[in-house]
Amino acid sequence: MSTEKQDNKIRLGGLWPKENEYGKFYSGKLSKKALEDARVDDNGDIQITIFKVKEKKTENSPGFNVFAFRPDGGKPKPVTKPGAKSAKAPQQAVEPEEPDDVI
After folding, report:
1. What whole-number distance in Å separates Cα of residue 90 and Cα of residue 103?
2. Cα separations (Å) of 5 from 11, 39, 78?
3. Among 7-21, 24-38, 39-53, 76-90, which stretch is predicted with the lowest mean pLDDT?
């Protein structure tokens, strides 16, 4: 299963429609790697969105794709060579400001 990235979304996995004696349901897989890359909210939850597959590539393709948002909002990550050091701008020391009213 791939972790396809589209704009600000990460494909987490797929769902297949199923049916048994208890009724209709969906079964699927989620990629652990993709889940690690997804944005987690303050409660530790990952918001997901599910889209129906319009045109299945094969008979075994999932009927639905599960997506989550990327933590960086979809901005492309800079490409760096392994072992390359990034040039950082020197930082200036900033004096903390004293509050006007201290309670």
Report:
1. 36
2. 6, 13, 15
3. 76-90
